[in-house]
């Protein structure tokens, strides 16, 4: 199709806003339709790996986000009693992947992305329905409470329960329950001093990370039937599951109020879609490839999708070809990682913990190795390197997957 003149993005989350900014920078007129009454994000914080930071470089945001980052890679894996299985550092991550691993509030990233769009580009309280995916010689059509919009490109960025996906691929089974639920909090914890860590227990895990503004981002996960809720409140549930784990977990829970806790069951797309586009409509992020958060790549892959879609907006088949194999592989890896971290059997846990510690003594920590083939990705177009990452002179881009490889 001809390069689109008007793009409609359904969904105002991180992936949708990144796509809108990238398309706007290509000269397209962009309309973002967000169902909620504001762009207030669901969730607390987001971890950004070098792959998504290079993608953000393309829209002029990479270095600003790096400067805002609180966590830059120091940390490791622990047992509930406090023993460290493995540790690593920001320097090790930067050497391995050509840039840092960082953590910041989702609201901050949403705010910065929205600021790069024209004032009239984002419409909130705007429920949208894809009426026609479009095709050769025929615009796509989207209905809204204010009337119908025609578009040369529609971007479905409407999340794991995507209505756009259901229109494009009505025979697809959709998301499935991943077998566990998550809790998240982002609160001030006066006097807290600790290294970022994730702690693995039987059928449970906990992560604690300091933020630059003095708050702490913490999350828990546990194997549990879908749809469960605490009999009293979710803070009490966290105390029951994690209250006797190592410091600083008790201090974080002591500072947490019931209303601070977000709880969500985790769903993922187990059966890959046949394509990420149909007609003049494309899917990205969770709408295309929802995955468990075990690798922290859900938002990162949505950001990758966004800049690759903007690059291939005149050839959506090329977008599918570039993104479907990569995201399918990462989603499957995330499912495997979730199973590993949430093992229940004592024998399995003993083998896992011994292997993690042994592997980390003979090379990079396991959680760094898990990013191989993921964090070393670069966008299909330049400039992807910023002044704060050595990617420009220490890495080269493979012509196949866009992955970075260390140069000698």
Show the helix and strand layout.
Elements: E1 6-10, H1 14-25, E2 29-33, E3 45-48, H2 50-57, H3 62-68, E4 75-78, E5 84-88, H4 90-97, E6 102-105, H5 106-115, E7 122-123, E8 129-132, E9 140-144, E10 147-151, E11 153-156, H6 163-168, E12 176-188, E13 197-201, E14 204-210, E15 215-223, H7 234-242, H8 249-254, E16 262-268, E17 277-278, E18 281-283, H9 286-289, H10 298-311, H11 316-341, H12 346-361, H13 366-369, H14 391-394, E19 395-397, E20 404-406
Parallel strand pairs: 1-2, 1-11, 2-7, 4-13, 11-18
Antiparallel strand pairs: 3-6, 4-5, 8-9, 9-10, 12-15, 12-16, 13-14, 14-15, 17-18, 19-20
Helix pairs in contact: 1-5, 1-10, 2-3, 2-10, 10-11
Q: What's this entry about, in short?
A:
33% of the residues lie in helices and 24% in strands. With 408 residues, the protein is an alpha/beta fold.
Task: Provide tags for this entry.
disordered C terminus; 24% strand; six-stranded mixed beta sheet; alpha/beta; 408 residues; single chain; seven-stranded mixed beta sheet
Radius of gyration: 21 Å
Q: Helix segment count?
A: 14
Shape: globular
Helix/strand/pairing class, anyone? alpha/beta
Strand count: 20
Overall average residue pLDDT: 89
Helix content: 25-40%
List unreliable stretches of 5+ residues. 384-408
Spatial sequence of strands, sheet with the most strands: 5-4-13-14-15-12-16
Distance between the first and last residues' Cα: 42 Å
Beta strand %:
15-25%
Taking the sheet with the most strands, its summary is: 7 strands, mixed
């Amino acid at each position: 199709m001809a390069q689109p003149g008007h793009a409609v993005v359904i969904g105002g989350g991180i992936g949708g806003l990144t796509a809108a900014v990238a398309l706007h920078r290509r000269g397209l007129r962009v309309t973002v339709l967000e169902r909620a009454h504001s762009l207030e994000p669901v969730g607390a914080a987001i971890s950004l790996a070098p792959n998504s930071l290079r993608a953000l470089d393309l829209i002029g945001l990479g270095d600003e986000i790096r400067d805002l980052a609180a966590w830059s890679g120091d940390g490791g894996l622990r047992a509930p009693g406090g023993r460290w299985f493995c540790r690593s550092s920001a320097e090790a991550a930067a050497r391995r992947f050509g840039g840092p691993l960082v953590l910041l509030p989702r609201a901050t990233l949403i705010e910065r992305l929205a600021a790069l769009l024209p004032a009239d580009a984002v419409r909130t309280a705007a429920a949208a329905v894809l009426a026609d995916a479009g095709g050769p010689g025929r615009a796509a059509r989207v209905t809204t409470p204010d009337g119908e919009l025609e578009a040369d490109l529609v971007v479905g960025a409407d999340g794991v329960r995507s209505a756009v996906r259901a229109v494009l691929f009505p025979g697809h089974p959709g998301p499935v329950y991943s077998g566990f639920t998550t809790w998240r909090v982002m609160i001030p914890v006066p006097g807290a001093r600790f290294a970022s860590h994730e702690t693995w227990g039987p059928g449970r895990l906990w992560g604690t990370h300091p933020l630059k503004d003095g708050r702490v981002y913490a999350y828990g996960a546990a194997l549990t039937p879908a749809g469960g809720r605490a009999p009293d409140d979710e803070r009490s549930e966290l105390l029951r599951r994690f209250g006797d784990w190592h410091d600083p977990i008790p201090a974080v829970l002591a500072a947490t109020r019931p209303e601070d806790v977000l709880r969500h069951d985790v769903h993922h797309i187990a059966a890959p879609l046949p394509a990420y586009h149909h007609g003049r409509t494309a899917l990205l992020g969770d709408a295309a490839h929802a995955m468990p958060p075990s690798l922290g790549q859900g938002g990162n892959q949505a950001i990758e999708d966004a800049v690759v879609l903007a690059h291939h907006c005149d050839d959506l088949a090329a977008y599918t070809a570039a993104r479907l194999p990569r995201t399918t592989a990462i989603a499957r890896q995330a499912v495997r990682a979730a199973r590993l971290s949430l093992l229940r059997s004592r024998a399995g846990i003993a083998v896992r913990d011994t292997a993690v510690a042994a592997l980390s003594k003979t090379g990079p920590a396991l959680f760094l190795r898990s990013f191989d083939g993921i964090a070393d990705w670069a966008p299909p177009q330049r400039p992807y390197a910023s002044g704060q990452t050595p990617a420009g002179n220490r890495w080269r881009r493979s012509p196949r997957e866009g992955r970075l490889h260390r140069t000698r």
